[in-house]
Amino acid sequence: MTTRMTRAEQTERNRELVLAAARRVFLARGYAGARLDVIAEEAGFSKGVVYSQFAGKAELFLALLEQRIAERAAENEDLAAGQAGLEGLRALLLANARRSEEGGGWTQLVIEFRVAAARDAELNARYAALHVRALEEFGAAVATVLERGGLVPSHPPRTLAELIFCLDAGRELERAAGTARLELDVVVDLVSRFVEPL
To answer: DNA binding happens at which residues (predicted)?
Structure first.
């Protein structure tokens, strides 16, 4: 016997299908090149179904970004649980770099969105709120592994996280241009200079 989904379950299922399709389309076409009608077709819906879930392309992207931040925070928390000190910091940095390199262009997509959002004060504020959450969560993971190893960052953990994110975005742009020479070991060495004993 087949159980029918409730309206709320159907709505949530449709939302997840639209988000999955949007992720594929954004990664294939970039933020500027992605269109809602293409996302709807990829999800197997009409544009009306997409609009019933999201107010527009920016809203859809922000929902994807929020989902990605939550996933990465959970991954970092799990990783940090078994790590300590500089080796723990190195593990977090390696995981962060690996996610960027294996993310199918996600980091470039976020950079593209950030540039577009910077030209719209309201959109930029919404993006910034999510970005601050990502910085704070990553900073907390870094602080946890350092403290467990008897170390503390010489600057607030959120500042250290911002430095790491800046280096990651810069490395991604260099990689996209084919000019990347900044090895991860250099990044680890640089970041570890901002750490001192408790």
So the answer is: 35-54
Cα–Cα distance, 198 to 150 (Å, whole number): 6
Residues 97 and 142 in one domain: yes
Q: Are residues 61 and 151 in the same domain?
A: yes
Asked if residue 187 and residue 122 are part of one domain, the reply reads yes
In three-state secondary structure terms, 101 is helix
Q: Model-level pTM? A: 0.90
Dihedral (Cα; 132, 135, 136, 141), 10-degree rounding: 160
pLDDT tens-digit profile of 73-90?
Answer: 999 999 999 899 999 999
Beta strands (DSSP E) in 62-118 are: none
Domain limits for position 125: 57-197
Provide the angle, in degrees to the nearest 10, between the axes of the packed helices 106-117 and 57-81: 130
Q: How many helices (H) and strands (E) does the chain have?
A: 9, 2
How many structural domains compose the chain? 2
Chain segment 130-185, per-residue pLDDT in tens: 999 999 999 999 999 999 999 999 999 999 999 999 999 999 999 999 999 988 88
